[in-house]
Specification:
The chain is α+β, with helices and mostly antiparallel strands and 314 residues long. The protein has 6 helices and 20 strands. The longest helix is centred in the middle third of the chain and has 16 residues.
């Protein structure tokens, strides 16, 4: 992993700052690299190995990393999503901590190479467009045909220098938590489902009514994902990928593909960062979406309409 990008460009870590690292066994190689990086630069680092199941309350030593004034910067590297916890929310929004959530446990990962400033030039106008809009309609060649009302919008470009900022690393998405009860239609996951893997040859076909998955037409192996927790039947996130360094990886647990430019992914379960649901969370990705917001077509077959979003590779 390009740690200089993480520490200097993304988090803008300063020599006198205290950094907290939370990681599990899957991320041990990356954690070792981070520990060595900080040691070589005499950076103050407090590291904790922690095996998280995605649902249990956080132990006290991990809670304190989030809820005490120091460390000012947190790096999280866990297979199970910790982002939608009240402790993480408080650390970012009440204490102003800067937080990077590493989402891919192995190297190499080409998405790390994306230019943060370029993602900002795409992401910020897209964020503003969603903030000004009310409804979204998403279709795809594979059969997705879904509508929702736009709720709380967020933008993750990898620029986490400001107090109270943070998100995934590698970054690259703009999305929102749909207004509760507003997600309706047909979803066809034709790229990748977290914990299930690539589904290009055998898509997952779902019907969603008032946010809830009511029918799974095609994949019996998708049902166990939903049965892990009742809340996973809820579609609680809709996000658009803006990372133009295309990435596909073999690990089923990783969903770094959700950042790929011109994709849309949907989050199942918790959305405490931009909604009210608590619990576990997983994501699934569709290819070549067409997106209409308030009767404005902002994307066709995975390509932004330059009338609204200009894609500049410079």
């Amino acid at each position: 992993m390009p740690l200089r990008t993480l520490f200097e460009k993304s988090l803008n870590c300063q020599p006198d700052e205290h950094i907290g690292l939370i990681y599990d066994a899957a991320f041990s190689p990356i954690a070792s690299s981070i520990i060595d990086y900080c040691s070589e630069r005499d950076m103050k680092l407090d590291s904790h190995r922690f095996e998280y199941d995605g649902t249990s309350p956080l132990p006290e030593d991990i809670r304190l990393l989030f809820l005490e004034r120091t460390p000012e910067v947190l790096i999280v590297a866990l297979l199970s999503n910790i982002w939608h916890t009240p402790e993480r929310w408080s650390a970012k929004h009440e204490l102003g901590k800067r937080i990077a959530n590493i989402i891919h446990p192995s190297e190499p990962c080409s998405s790390y190479l994306a230019d943060i400033s370029r993602m900002s030039r795409i992401g910020r106008p897209l964020e503003q467009l969603l903030l000004e809009s009310t409804e979204i309609h998403i279709t795809s060649p594979a059969g997705t045909d879904l509508t929702a009302r736009i709720g709380k919008v967020f933008c993750e470009t990898g620029d986490y220098r400001a107090p109270g900022s943070g998100g995934d690393f590698p970054a690259g998405e703009v999305g929102f938590g749909p207004q509760e009860g507003s997600v309706n239609g047909r979803l066809v996951y034709d790229f990748k489902v977290q914990h299930l893997g690539r589904v290009k040859d055998y898509p997952v076909v779902l019907m969603v009514k008032d946010d809830v998955v009511v029918t799974d037409f095609a994949r019996r192996d998708f049902l166990p994902l939903l049965q892990r927790h009742d809340i996973l039947r809820f579609v609680s996130e809709i996000s658009i990928g803006i990372n133009d360094v295309w990435t596909e990886v073999d690990e089923d647990s990783s969903i770094v593909e959700e950042k790929n430019f011109g994709t849309v992914h949907f989050g199942h379960g918790s959305n405490l960062s931009y909604g009210t649901r608590r619990g576990p969370h997983f994501d699934a990705v569709i290819l070549n979406p067409s997106i209409v917001v308030d009767n404005r077509c902002i994307m066709s077959d995975g390509v932004f309409n330059e009338k609204y979003i200009k894609f500049d590779r410079s």
